[in-house]
Each structure stands twice: as structure tokens, then as C-alpha cells.
């Protein structure tokens, strides 16, 4: 990646995919308890950071979905993460210029905003040469969103609690698989999908340990589910069309919705198959967003 001198620090914000997602209960505060296996795709946004005057926090938006975020005004997760980090450090005079290149569709179940917030926290710790201890950093992340803690590490992980309990898993068998992500352009607000679940909670069925062989992983995943898929389809039937198209596409061995939708993913035996599947889906549905690639292979060394 070439470095822009105005933004010397760059952090990838990879898409998060819930390979399965079981909703096992609800807390008194309305948040739901989850059992999920999360992986990260090579496809993602980019957060860059550079110096600015004392106390200044600026955000430039770029990329195909930049305009969709600009419409939200100033309260996006990258700026909230930056303000939160400054407050946690107790140094309000720290300043930064940030640039978010938005490749992932917004509010789409693939953790775009959460991964952006996590990448902003990592980028600003590097830019400012500051560290928060892991307890403080996790608390800050969770305050920004339930998916932000898992996005901080951006490695395959089991997620439990409301997203606050994150345990990285040895993901060697996952690493070679390909992912195709498909979003039909429909917006599904997360709280509405949880509400539509209406308290029909499922059992946790944690895939632990992860099988070593990719075929074993796919077989084990096929026996699991995303509990939010049916309520999401109830609210937004086009999600069923996305799943049907994925299931009928060459190279896709498993198709499922991610998070609260509307993005669905197809697992492919390898990266090349995922690239071919995404190209085929873009040809079939030019108005939909489809991206193929491998699993995210880790952050660049600082
Ligand atoms: O934390 P985040 O902002 O991503 O969550 C958005 C909304 O999704 C929450 O306000 C809540 O309604 C719902 N949610 C939930 N249980 C979770 C995560 C999110 O009920 N574990």
C-alpha cells in the first residue's frame, strides 16, 4: 500500500462476517446474548490518520459509499472513536486528520462501522504513540458498538455475551477459504431485526475446536445457523433472493446472512472461486453490490 504523506498511518477495516450467529437470550437492558463465530474478509474499508493542530479532529470521506455516510452529518463511528480515545487518554488537545475510504455498504450486517471504529482506535494509538490498557480499550470499544471489540483484533474469534466476550480461535482451516459478499441495497436496522426475533431464542452451539480441514469446517457450519436470518427475511424478503442466488452460483459451498443483514455471504473453496462468483453475481444483478476475495490475512506491521 503506498503511503500518502498527509496520512502516514493506515489501518485496514476488514468486513466482519458471522459464520454462524445464535441469539441465546436477552439482557434486562434489551441487548441480546450471542454465540457467534466471526471471521474477517479481505474486502474492507481503509482508515488513515495524519497530524492536525491541537484539538482538531477532521474526517474526510472517500470511496464508493463515502457519500452515503456524509449524509449522516458529524456523528459517525470514526469520529466517536477518536473523541472517545482522547477522553479515555485524558488528552483533549490531541488532534488528527482522518480519512475513511468507504468500500463496504453502510449498515449492512458486515460490521463496516464497527470495523472502521476499531481501525480508527488502532490508527490513532499509532499516530499519537499512546496506549490504553486492554481493559480500558475493550470498554471504550464496547461503548462504541457491540461488534467493535471483535473488530479490534480482526482475527477469527468466538463472540459471546453481547459481543464483549471475544476469544480468538486458531483459524488455519479458514485461512484458505474464499468469501463472496452480496448486498442488495436494502437497509435493515439492527434493532428492528432483533425485535422481529420476538424472544425466540436458540441454543448456543459453539464450534469448538474448529476442525483443521476446510471441508470439516464447512460441514460443521452447515449444521449451524444465523438466528436473525428468518426475522430479517420477514422484514426484507429480498434477503431470501440474495441467498437463493448465492446458492445457485458456481463455487459457493455455503450461503448465509451475516449479522442482522442485509448482506449475505457465500463461502468458496478458495479466493479465486470467490472472485469468479462475485463477478458472476455482478453480471446477474448489476444493481447489487458484490465483492469477492480471500479471508483477511492480518494487519500491516506498524
Ligand atoms: O451495539 P450496536 O450499536 O451495534 O447495536 C445496535 C442495536 O442492535 C442495539 O441498540 C440493540 O438494539 C441491538 N443489539 C442487540 N444485542 C446485541 C447487539 C446489538 O440487541 N448483542
TrEMBL record:
Record pathway: Isoprenoid biosynthesis; isopentenyl diphosphate biosynthesis via DXP pathway; isopentenyl diphosphate from 1-deoxy-D-xylulose 5-phosphate: step 3/6
Reaction equations catalysed: 4-CDP-2-C-methyl-D-erythritol + ATP = 4-CDP-2-C-methyl-D-erythritol 2-phosphate + ADP + H(+)
Record-annotated GHMP kinase C-terminal domain positions: 225-283
GO molecular function, one term: 4-(cytidine 5'-diphospho)-2-C-methyl-D-erythritol kinase activity
Active site: 16, 147
Top-level class of the enzyme under EC nomenclature: transferase
Pfam families associated with the record: GHMP_kinases_C, GHMP_kinases_N
Binding site for ATP: 105-115
Record InterPro entries: GHMP_kinase_C_dom, GHMP_kinase_C_sf, GHMP_kinase_N_dom, IspE, Ribosomal_Su5_D2-typ_SF, Ribsml_uS5_D2-typ_fold_subgr
Protein EC: 2.7.1.148
Function: Catalyzes the phosphorylation of the position 2 hydroxy group of 4-diphosphocytidyl-2C-methyl-D-erythritol.
PANTHER family per the UniProt record, alphabetical: 4-DIPHOSPHOCYTIDYL-2-C-METHYL-D-ERYTHRITOL KINASE, CHLOROPLASTIC
Family classification: Belongs to the GHMP kinase family. IspE subfamily.
Protein name as catalogued: 4-diphosphocytidyl-2-C-methyl-D-erythritol kinase
Lineage: Bacteria, Pseudomonadati, Pseudomonadota, Alphaproteobacteria, Rhodospirillales
Designated gene of the protein: ispE
Amino acid at each position: 500500500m503506498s503511503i500518502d504523506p498527509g496520512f502516514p498511518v493506515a489501518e485496514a477495516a476488514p468486513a466482519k462476517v458471522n459464520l454462524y450467529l445464535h441469539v441465546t437470550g436477552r439482557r434486562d437492558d434489551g441487548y441480546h446474548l450471542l454465540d457467534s463465530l466471526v471471521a474477517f474478509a479481505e474486502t474492507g474499508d481503509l482508515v488513515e490518520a495524519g497530524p492536525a493542530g491541537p484539538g482538531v479532529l477532521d474526517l474526510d470521506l472517500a470511496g464508493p459509499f463515502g457519500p452515503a455516510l456524509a449524509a449522516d452529518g458529524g456523528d459517525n463511528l470514526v469520529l466517536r472513536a477518536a473523541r472517545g480515545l482522547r477522553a479515555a487518554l485524558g488528552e483533549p488537545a490531541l488532534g488528527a486528520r482522518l480519512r475513511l475510504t468507504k468500500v463496504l455498504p453502510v449498515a449492512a450486517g458486515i460490521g463496516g462501522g464497527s470495523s472502521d471504529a476499531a481501525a480508527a482506535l488502532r490508527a490513532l494509538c499509532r499516530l499519537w504513540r499512546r496506549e490504553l490498557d486492554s481493559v480500558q480499550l475493550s470498554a471504550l470499544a464496547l461503548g462504541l458498538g457491540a461488534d467493535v471489540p471483535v473488530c479490534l483484533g480482526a482475527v477469527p474469534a468466538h463472540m459471546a455475551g453481547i459481543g464483549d466476550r471475544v476469544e480468538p480461535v486458531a483459524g488455519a482451516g479458514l485461512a484458505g477459504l474464499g468469501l463472496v459478499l452480496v448486498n442488495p441495497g436494502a437497509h435493515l436496522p439492527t434493532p428492528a431485526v432483533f425485535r422481529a426475533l420476538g424472544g425466540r431464542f436458540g441454543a448456543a452451539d459453539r464450534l469448538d475446536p474448529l476442525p483443521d480441514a476446510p471441508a470439516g469446517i464447512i460441514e460443521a457450519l452447515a449444521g449451524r445457523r444465523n438466528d436473525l436470518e428468518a426475522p430479517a427475511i420477514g422484514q426484507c424478503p429480498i434477503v431470501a433472493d440474495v441467498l437463493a442466488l448465492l446458492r445457485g452460483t458456481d463455487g459457493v459451498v455455503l450461503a448465509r446472512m451475516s449479522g442482522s443483514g442485509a448482506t449475505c455471504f457465500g463461502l468458496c473453496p478458495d479466493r479465486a472461486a470467490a472472485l469468479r462468483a462475485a463477478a458472476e453475481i455482478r453480471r446477474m444483478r448489476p444493481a447489487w453490490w458484490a465483492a469477492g476475495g480471500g479471508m483477511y490475512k492480518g494487519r500491516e506491521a506498524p
